[in-house]
Amino acid sequence: MEPGDLWFLPERMAITASSAWWFLPFVLPVCLYVCFTDLREMRITNQAVILLAAIFVVVGLIALPLPEYGWRLVQMVAVLVAGFALNAGRAIGAGDAKFAAAAAPFIAGGDARYLLAIFAANLLAAFFTHRLAKYTPLRRIAPGWKSWSMGWKFPMGLSLGGTLAIYLILGAFRGA
């Protein structure tokens, strides 16, 4: 292992570098928008979710072989069904469930384990950073953000959007 290696990622990820590069310029702005709106309003907008899904539908035809493209669409439906079930049980918010479904087809099935590691690390970092900023002068930069005053509720879009962005960036450089 080299000094710059990430211990939880293989030498090559299952996503191809080519598909990650195709998706990245379109998906990254949506991820940043989702992070911002969830911090500001404590909601992930339907427009962002629809745009993310539309990006996959259009760019996925170019970036992926047709059989894989079809399976990735099945992934989206499966995550949407699971997300609705979790939302019905009040485990996650509706926007979080919809965003996860729209993000699902961008993830190569063989990278699920690594995606979970990225998500766990990102969730911890985002949670502690948000809580730290909430009680420091940094809060004055955006005093009107709803996420500051929501008690224990946390803007998961910060972690979900960040995770997808990090995954695609890593895939662009470490993809098959």
UniProtKB/TrEMBL annotation:
<feature type="transmembrane region" description="Helical">
    <location>
        <begin position="152"/>
        <end position="173"/>
    </location>
</feature>
<keyword id="KW-0812">Transmembrane</keyword>
<feature type="domain" description="Prepilin type IV endopeptidase peptidase">
    <location>
        <begin position="27"/>
        <end position="128"/>
    </location>
</feature>
<keyword id="KW-0378">Hydrolase</keyword>
<feature type="transmembrane region" description="Helical">
    <location>
        <begin position="73"/>
        <end position="93"/>
    </location>
</feature>
<keyword id="KW-1133">Transmembrane helix</keyword>
<feature type="transmembrane region" description="Helical">
    <location>
        <begin position="48"/>
        <end position="67"/>
    </location>
</feature>
<protein>
    <submittedName>
        <fullName>Prepilin peptidase</fullName>
        <ecNumber>3.4.23.43</ecNumber>
    </submittedName>
</protein>
<dbReference type="GO" id="GO:0004190">
    <property type="term" value="F:aspartic-type endopeptidase activity"/>
</dbReference>
<feature type="transmembrane region" description="Helical">
    <location>
        <begin position="114"/>
        <end position="132"/>
    </location>
</feature>
<dbReference type="Pfam" id="PF01478">
    <property type="entry name" value="Peptidase_A24"/>
</dbReference>
<dbReference type="InterPro" id="IPR000045">
    <property type="entry name" value="Prepilin_IV_endopep_pep"/>
</dbReference>
<feature type="transmembrane region" description="Helical">
    <location>
        <begin position="20"/>
        <end position="36"/>
    </location>
</feature>
<keyword id="KW-0472">Membrane</keyword>
